[in-house]
Amino acid sequence: MTHSPSPVPVFDGHNDFLLRLLRNPSARETIWLTGEGKGQLDLPRMKAGGFAGGFFAVYIPSPPDASGLDYDTLMDNPPYQVALPAPVPFETAVQTATAMIGHLLWMERTGTLSICRSTADIRAAMAAGKIAAILHMEGAEAISEDLDTLHLWHGIGLRSLGPVWSRPTAFGHGVPFAFPSGPDTGPGLTEAGKRLVAECNRLKIMLDLSHLNEKGFDDVARLSDAPLVATHSNAHAVTPSARNLTDRQLAVIADSKGMVGLNYATSFLRPDGRKDTDMTWEPVLRHVDHLLSILGEDHVGLGSDYDGAAIPAPLGDVAGQQNLIDAFRAHGYGEALIEKLAWKNWLSLLDRTWA
Ligand code: ZN
pLDDT confidence of 1, banded at 50, 70, 90? Predict the structure, then answer.
């Protein structure tokens, strides 16, 4: 009989927990501190699963869909091509972003989490047993084209930004949720988007390429002086979703000494593209093997998409995170590689990006 070593800490590339507080602000104490028995994240389950920290996304929800499309049914029956939602106006996005950042600041005030502006902050939070949170924006809707608000959000603690979620912004264009599909689905960055890349480089705000289409990806690759990062994307060679990265894109990220975080969404893990949680670890390991084969063992990490995606049943929620670590062990990954995948690579990447 084998006994697993103590939990490996996990530093994670993407979660949508703040969306749950946005939707139910009066219950935030229960949702965060004790858990409401729903969703995939809360403080007790993070502790149980060894979740040490990660990127907390400010994502602006689209207004309810007037088309009446049932996305769940659609995405459970590939092939599919979900139309992109309409752009969200700046004023609406600022209101939502302000509320979500307010919730993250409240979490910090409970003494259980620390909003980290440097890797020294992350290491200190981990040593103190607090959740190490990076303030991230998934889509730049809350940033004005003159970029003044970028400086405001940076002052509050913003250290990571995706120019787009999948819908278009003033800065660029994202991929639609489509399977099977390549990522070359539209035009590249706008002029404002090119200025955004330069300003993020100056402010040392990490740029996140997940959700960008291929032309936008190549524009960032050409313009940015930072390592290229996709916080929550998988290998297109295993699952040909528009949201996954082609081997060419992975090679470009490798050249920049960048990083890819493994997304747990079943639609981006399963070779059949279905949003179906009834699956084994086998496709998950195939993605990690493929990412490792192109990026090398210093440039792959985890990017769960907790509270933003349907994830494999053997994982369940964040409390099951060590099951994935055990699957890595059973697959033959050594402890040194597992620690890199689980947290060390993210810290090294942030050392390279924010220094
Ligand atoms: Zn996302």
Answer: very low
Does the pLDDT of residue 188 top 80, yes or no?
Answer: yes
> In terms of C-beta distances under 8 Å and separation of at least 24 residues, what long-range contacts does 324-328 make, across chains too?
324/281, 324/284, 325/4, 325/7, 325/8, 325/10, 325/50, 326/4, 327/281, 327/284, 327/285, 328/285, 328/288
Q: Is residue 83 part of a domain?
A: yes
User: Which residues form the domain of 113?
Assistant: 10-62+71-354
Beta bridge partners of 269: none
Tally the domains of the chain: 1
Give the pLDDT confidence of 306-344 residue by residue, as tens digits: 999 999 999 999 999 999 999 999 999 999 999 999 999
Reported as a pLDDT band with limits 50, 70 and 90, residue 64 is confident
**How far away, in angstroms, is 195 Cα from ligand 1 center?**
23
Describe the chain by its helix, strand, coil percentages, rounded to 5. Answer: 40, 15, 45
Integer-rounded Cα Rg, in Å, for the chain is 19
Average pLDDT in the chain = 96
Shortest CA distance to 14 belongs to which of 105, 123, 136? 136
Whole-number Å distance, alpha carbon 5 to ligand 1 midpoint, is 32
> Can you give the CATH number for the domain in which 133 is found?
3.20.20.140
Assess if residue 3 is contained within a domain: no
* The dihedral sign for the CA sequence 306, 259, 279, 334: negative
Cis peptide before 79 (omega within 30 of 0): yes
Task: Determine the 3-state secondary structure of 164 from DSSP.
Answer: coil
Range with the lowest mean pLDDT among 73-82, 184-193, 275-284? 73-82
Q: What is the pLDDT of residue 61?
A: 93
If you measure from the C-alpha of residue 119 to the centroid of ligand 1, how many angstroms do you get, rounded to a whole number? 23
Residue 167 lies in a domain: yes
As a whole number, mean pLDDT of residues 129-139 equals 99
CA 169 to ligand 1 centroid distance, Å: 15
CA 223 to ligand 1 center in whole angstroms: 23
Examine residue 293 and state whether it is found in any structural domain, yes or no: yes
Which of 287, 267, 265 has the alpha carbon at shortest distance from 275?
Answer: 267
CA of 263 to the centre of ligand 1 (A): 9
The pTM (predicted TM-score) of the whole model is 0.97
